[in-house]
Specification:
The complex is a heterodimer of chains A (321) and B (662). Chain A has 2 domains: 131 residues, Cytochrome c-like domain (Cytochrome Bc1 Complex, Chain D, domain 2); 131 residues, Cytochrome Bc1 Complex, Chain D, domain 2 (Orthogonal Bundle), CATH 1.10.760. Chain A is 42% helix and 2% strand. Chain A is built from 14 helices and 2 strands. The longest helix of chain A is centred in the N-terminal third of the chain and has 22 residues. With 662 residues, chain B is of the alpha+beta class. Chain B has 5 domains: 149 residues, no CATH class; 97 residues; 100 residues, Beta-Lactamase, CATH 3.30.450.20; 64 residues; 173 residues, 2-Layer Sandwich (Heat Shock Protein 90). Chain B starts with a helix and ends with a strand. The relative contact order of chain B is 0.04. Classes of the chains: A mainly alpha (321), B alpha+beta (662).
C-alpha cells in the first residue's frame, strides 16, 4: 500500500519536472503555429492588393512581382528589378513567415509589416509610386471602394491598404512542415539523414542564430564574426553597412537581420547581396565567417537535407476562403 | 426697444441651450475621458508587465534557460505596440504625447542593448560549444603534458565564463601566450590558432555580456513607468476634481437658466392669456360694433378693403361689389364737392373727421349716416388706411326735418300774430285817443249831471281799453322782438317816488299806507331807460295795492354792489296782502295768467303786466325772485296785521343799471 503511494508520488514529481522542462523549452527550434485571430475579409482584400500592379507607378508590378508566392515568396535574382527594369541594391527576402521577424528589411529599418510597405511603394527602383497616386487609382475602382466599405466600414485610406496587405502577409505562415511534424512527435516525418543534419545544425552552432519557430529572423548578427567577409568579397556598398544605416552605431556595422531558413531551399540566391547561388556555398560562407570553422562536404549535404524538411505549406488561396 | 429686449431674450435662450449642450457634451466627454483613462491605465499596467517579462526573459537568455529568442521578439513587439497605443491614448487624455518619448527612448536603448546581447550571446554560445570540440580534436594530437595544459586551459576558460575575474583572465592570457610558443606542425598550429581565436572571443564577449546584462537590468524603465503612472494618477485626480467643479458650475448655471426660462414662460403665458382675453373682448366689441354700425376700411387711395354685413345691407351692394371700389359709388350728390374735399384734407392730415353724410343706395334711394373716419398712420406719419364707422341716422334725419318745418311754421304764425296785433292795436289806439280826447272836450262843455256821468263812463272805459291795448302792444312787441330800450340819464329817486305817487293817487284807499325808500349810497344820476323802469315798478306796486285790502306796501331800492361804471340795485315791493301760493308763483309771469281765476273777475286786468315786466327786466339784465316770507314785525313794527290769514308776499328784482352819469 505505502509502496504504491510513494511510487505514485514519485511518478507525479517526475511528471512535473518533465512538464517544467518542456515548458522552459530547451529546443532552439520550435514548430510554426497557424496564426490566430486574423480577419478572413482583410486577408482576402490584402491578397488582391498584394497582386495588384496598380500599386506601382506604371501599373507594371505588384508586391507579388518580387515576392512570388508560388516560389518561396521571393524572386530568384541576386537583386530585384523594379519599375522600368530598374535594378535594386539588395536581395528580396521571402514574404513567408515575415510576420514572425523581429523587424522588416535586411537592416530591420521597418518595425512592422505595415511600415515595410512604405519602402517598396516609394523606392524609385521598386514600385516608384506614392500613396496619393496609389489611393487615386484604387478609389477609381468601384469594386475596391465596395470591398473597403464592407471590410473597414469606410473609404479607402493609406492605413487601411497597409493593414489589409499586412494582415494578408501575417497569414502567410508555412505551417505543417515535415520537421514540425517531427518536433511534434512524428518520428517518421523526416528521414534519418535529415535527423543527422538537424543534429549537425545544432552541433556546428548554426542554431545559435537560426533558431525559434522561424529558424532565424529574431535577431541581428554581424556578417563576419570570424574574418572580414566584405574585404574578402570586395566592392563594399552602402547596403553592405546593414543596420549601421539605421542606427549609426559602430557595433551595428555589417549587422543584418538573421534570415529565416524555413524556405531557404526555395529562395536562392542567398545573403543580402545575393552572392551565394547555392545552399552549399552559403553554408560554407556561414561556417567560415560566422562560426570560424570548416564543415566537411558530407555534413553540408546532411544539413541541406535537414533544411529541406523545414518547408511547410505555402499560400493556398482556398485554404483561407 | 422691444426688438432689443427680444434680442436679449433670444440671446439668453440661445446661450442657455449652448451651455446645456456643452454640459451634456461635457458629461459625455468626461465619460469618454474616463473610459480613455481606464484603457490608458490598463495599457500602462500592461507595459509595466511586459517590461518585467523583458527582464525575466533577458535573464532566461543569459542563464540559457531558453535557447530561442522568439519570446523576446514577441515581448519587444508588444512593447512597441503598447507605445503606439499609449501615444494614441495620451493624445486623447492629455492632448499631446511628447512626454512619452523620453520613456520610450529609454526603452528603445534597453531593447537595443538586448539586441546586442542576443547577437553576442549567439557568438559566445557558438564559441563555447566549439571550444570543447576543437580542444578535443587538438588534444588527441598532443603529448600528455601538453594535453594536461590544454585541459587546464579549457577548464580555466569554462571556470572564467561562470566566475569571471581579472586574475583568471590574465592567467588564461599567459597560458595562451605560452601555448602559442609551442613548436607544432603547421596544420596543428592553425587549429591551435583557431582555438585561441575562439577563446579570445569568449574572453571578450563574456566580460562584455556580463556588463551588458547588468546594464540591461539596471535600465530604470520600471521605475520610470511607476513614476509616470504616479504623476499621471495625481494629475488625473486633479483633473477629475476640476471636472467635478466645472460640472457643478454647469449644473448651477443650467438650473438658473431653467428657472429663468420657466419664469419667462409663465410670464409669456400670462401675457398671452391676457392677450387672448383682450382679443376676445375686441371680438365682442367688433361684433357689437358690426351689429350697430356700418364699418368700412379703405386704403390710402380710398378704395374699400373691408366692409361689414351692415354696410352691405344698408347700401344694398354685395361685398364683392364694394371691395376695391371707391366710396364715390355711394355719392348722393347732396353734398357739394367742397364738403368731401374738406373731409379728405382733415383725414389726410391724420385728424379724425366726424360728420353726417347722405348716401345713395344701389336702388337710388337716399340714406343718412353719422360718419366717423379714423385715419391710421403708418411709418412716416402718413395715413395708411382709414376706418369709417357709420350709424344709420336716416330716421332721425327725417324726423329732424319734419320738426324743423313744424317749428318754422310755428314761428312764422307767432310772428304773423304779433304783426297783426301791433298793427291792429295801433289802428285801434288812434280812434280810441280820439274818443278820449273828444270825451274830455265834452266834459268841459255844459252837461247835465246824467250826461256828465255818461261821458265819464265813456272816458273810463276808453282809458281801460287803451291800457289793455298798450299792454297788448308791448307784449306783441316782445313777441316780435321789436322792444327797444332807451339810454338816458335819469334820477332813480324821482322814478321810484313818482311811481309811488301815481299809484297812491289812483288807489285812494284809506286803510293802506304806501312807503318808498331809496338807498342813499346809490348815485343820484344813472343811465338807462327810466320809462320802462317806471312801467315795471308801477306794475308791481299796482299789483301790490290791488291785492292788499289794508296794511301797507313798501317800495325799496337797495345798493348791492358798485364798480367804476356799474351799479347793481335790488328793487323790492313788499305788501301785507293775501299772498300767493308756490304753484301759482311759477305760472304768474306767463301771459294772460292771474293769481286766481276768481280774483281776475274781482280785480280785473289783462294778466299781461307781469309778463311784460319780466321781459323788460330781462332786457335790462336783471331777474325776478319771489321771497316767500316777510319779517313784518321788523319792517312794520307799529302796524302789525295779524288779522291777515295768508303770509305776505314780496317781489324782489335786481336791476342792474348800466353806467351812471357822475
Amino acid at each position: 500500500m505505502w509502496r504504491m503511494v510513494i511510487t505514485m508520488f514519485w511518478a507525479f514529481c517526475l511528471g512535473q519536472v518533465q512538464a517544467l522542462a518542456a515548458e522552459i523549452s530547451d529546443a532552439a527550434i520550435v514548430p510554426l503555429e497557424r496564426p490566430k485571430e486574423l480577419s478572413v475579409e482583410k486577408i482576402r482584400l490584402g491578397r488582391r492588393l498584394f497582386h495588384d500592379t496598380r500599386l506601382s507607378h506604371d501599373n507594371s508590378i505588384s508586391c507579388a512581382h518580387c515576392h512570388d508566392l508560388a516560389h518561396g515568396g521571393a524572386d530568384h535574382t541576386p537583386h530585384s528589378y523594379g519599375v522600368g527594369g530598374a535594378e535594386g541594391v539588395i536581395n528580396a527576402p521571402t514574404v513567408y513567415n515575415a510576420g514572425l521577424n523581429l523587424a522588416q528589411f535586411w537592416d530591420g529599418r521597418a518595425a512592422t509589416l505595415e511600415e515595410q510597405i512604405d519602402g517598396p511603394i516609394h523606392n524609385p527602383v521598386e514600385m516608384a509610386s506614392n500613396w496619393p497616386e496609389v489611393l487615386a487609382k484604387l478609389r477609381a475602382d468601384a469594386s475596391y471602394v465596395e470591398s473597403f466599405a464592407r471590410v473597414f466600414g469606410g473609404k479607402i485610406t493609406e492605413a487601411r491598404v497597409k493593414e489589409a496587405i499586412a494582415e494578408f502577409e501575417r497569414s502567410l505562415v508555412t505551417v505543417d512542415s515535415p520537421f514540425d511534424r517531427y518536433l511534434r512527435g512524428d518520428a517518421t516525418a523526416i528521414s534519418e539523414v535529415q535527423k543527422r543534419g538537424y543534429r549537425l545544425f545544432i552541433s556546428y552552432g548554426c542554431v545559435s542564430c537560426h533558431q525559434g519557430a522561424n529558424v532565424g529572423g529574431n535577431l541581428f548578427q554581424v556578417m563576419g564574426v570570424f574574418g572580414d567577409y566584405f574585404r574578402d568579397r570586395g566592392g563594399e556598398t552602402k547596403a553592405d553597412l546593414g543596420r549601421y544605416n539605421v542606427t549609426g552605431l559602430a557595433r551595428d556595422r555589417h549587422k543584418f537581420k538573421v534570415p529565416s531558413l524555413r524556405l531557404v531551399v526555395l529562395t536562392a540566391p542567398y545573403f543580402h547581396d545575393g552572392s551565394a547561388e547555392t545552399l552549399d556555398q552559403a553554408i560554407r560562407v556561414m561556417a567560415k565567417y560566422q562560426l570560424g570553422r570548416d564543415i566537411p562536404d558530407e555534413d553540408i549535404a546532411d544539413i541541406i537535407a535537414f533544411l529541406h524538411s523545414l518547408v511547410g505549406k505555402m499560400d493556398d488561396a482556398d485554404a483561407h476562403e | 426697444m422691444r426688438m432689443n429686449s427680444n434680442l436679449v431674450r433670444y440671446a439668453i435662450v440661445a446661450s442657455g441651450v449652448l451651455l446645456i449642450a456643452a454640459a451634456t457634451y461635457g458629461s459625455f466627454a468626461s465619460r469618454k475621458e474616463f473610459l480613455a483613462y481606464q484603457e490608458w491605465s490598463r495599457t500602462w499596467m500592461e507595459l509595466k508587465k511586459q517590461d518585467v517579462r523583458l527582464n525575466e526573459h533577458m535573464l532566461m537568455v543569459r542563464t540559457m534557460m531558453t535557447r530561442n529568442y522568439d519570446e523576446l521578439v514577441r515581448i519587444i513587439h508588444a512593447i512597441r505596440q503598447l507605445r503606439r497605443t499609449l501615444m494614441r491614448l495620451d493624445f486623447a487624455v492629455h492632448g499631446h504625447a511628447s512626454h512619452l518619448d523620453e520613456l520610450f527612448d529609454l526603452m528603445e536603448r534597453k531593447i537595443a542593448m538586448i539586441e546586442q546581447y542576443k547577437a553576442d550571446q549567439a557568438i559566445l554560445q557558438n564559441s563555447q560549444r566549439y571550444l570543447r570540440v576543437v580542444a578535443g580534436q587538438l588534444s588527441t594530437q598532443l603529448d600528455a603534458a601538453r594535453q594536461a595544459r590544454l585541459h587546464d586551459l579549457e577548464a580555466d576558460v569554462y571556470f572564467y565564463l561562470s566566475m569571471p575575474s581579472p586574475e583568471r583572465k590574465a592567467h588564461i592570457r599567459s597560458m595562451i601566450q605560452d601555448m602559442e610558443a609551442w613548436p607544432l606542425a603547421s596544420a596543428l598550429q592553425a587549429e591551435m590558432q583557431n582555438m585561441i581565436r575562439h577563446i579570445n572571443v569568449l574572453l571578450d564577449k563574456s566580460d562584455y555580456l556580463l556588463e551588458l546584462a547588468r546594464k540591461v537590468i539596471a535600465v530604470p524603465s520600471a521605475q520610470r513607468i511607476d513614476a509616470m503612472l504616479a504623476t499621471y494618477k495625481v494629475r488625473h485626480r486633479a483633473q477629475l476634481s476640476r471636472m467635478d467643479t466645472s460640472r457643478l458650475l454647469l449644473a448651477v448655471v443650467a438650473g438658473l437658466l431653467l428657472l429663468w426660462i420657466s419664469v419667462t414662460m409663465r410670464r409669456q403665458q400670462q401675457i398671452s392669456e391676457r392677450l387672448k382675453e383682450a382679443l376676445q373682448e375686441l371680438e365682442y366689441q367688433k361684433y357689437a360694433l358690426d351689429q350697430h354700425s356700418i364699418v368700412a376700411v379703405t386704403d390710402q387711395r380710398g378704395r374699400i378693403t373691408y366692409a361689414n354685413d351692415k354696410f352691405c345691407e344698408i347700401s344694398q351692394y354685395s361685398r364683392e361689389e364694394l371691395l376695391g371700389q371707391d366710396h364715390r359709388i355711394l355719392n348722393s350728390g347732396h353734398h357739394p364737392p367742397s364738403f368731401f374735399a374738406e373731409m379728405w384734407r382733415a383725414i389726410g392730415m391724420g385728424h379724425i373727421w366726424r360728420g353726417e353724410i347722405c348716401n345713395r343706395r344701389k336702388d337710388g334711394s337716399l340714406y343718412w349716416v353719422d360718419t366717423t373716419v379714423v385715419p391710421f398712420t403708418g411709418k412716416g406719419g402718413k395715413p395708411e388706411r382709414y376706418i369709417a364707422i357709420r350709424t344709420d341716422i336716416t330716421a332721425r334725419k327725417t324726423m329732424e326735418q319734419k320738426l324743423k318745418r313744424a317749428h318754422d311754421e310755428a314761428l312764422e304764425s307767432s310772428r304773423m300774430k304779433s304783426m297783426f296785433l301791433s298793427t291792429v292795436s295801433h289802428e285801434i289806439r288812434t280812434p280810441l285817443n280820439g274818443i278820449i280826447g273828444m270825451g274830455d272836450l265834452l266834459l268841459d262843455t255844459e252837461l247835465t249831471p246824467q250826461q256828465q256821468e255818461f261821458v265819464a263812463a265813456i272816458r273810463a272805459s276808453s282809458e281801460s281799453l287803451l291800457r289793455i291795448i298798450n299792454d297788448i302792444l308791448d307784449f306783441s312787441k316782445f313777441e316780435a322782438g321789436q322792444m327797444e330800450m332807451d339810454e338816458t340819464d335819469f334820477s332813480l329817486l324821482s322814478v321810484v317816488e313818482g311811481s309811488s305817487v301815481v299809484v297812491s293817487h289812483r288807489s285812494r284807499n284809506d286803510r293802506l299806507a304806501l312807503y318808498s325808500f331809496v338807498d342813499p349810497r346809490i348815485p343820484p344820476v344813472l343811465r338807462g331807460d327810466p320809462g320802462r323802469l317806471r312801467q315795471v315798478l308801477l306794475n308791481l306796486i299796482d299789483n301790490a295795492v290791488k291785492f292788499t285790502e289794508e296794511g301797507c306796501v313798501v317800495v325799496r331800492a337797495d345798493l348791492v354792489s358798485r364798480s367804476d361804471d356799474r351799479v347793481r340795485v335790488v328793487f323790492s315791493v313788499l305788501d301785507t296782502g293775501i299772498g300767493i301760493d308756490p304753484e301759482t308763483q311759477a305760472k304768474l309771469f306767463q301771459p294772460f295768467v292771474q293769481a286766481d281765476g276768481s280774483a281776475t273777475r274781482k280785480y280785473g286786468g289783462t294778466g299781461l303786466g307781469l309778463a311784460i315786466s319780466k321781459h323788460i327786466v330781462a332786457l335790462m339784465g336783471g331777474r325776478f325772485r319771489w321771497r316767500a316770507s316777510l319779517a313784518r314785525d321788523r319792517v312794520f313794527p307799529s302796524r302789525s296785521s295779524s288779522r291777515l290769514g295768508m303770509p305776505p308776499w314780496s317781489k324782489i328784482f335786481r336791476w342792474m343799471m348800466k353806467n351812471y352819469a357822475g
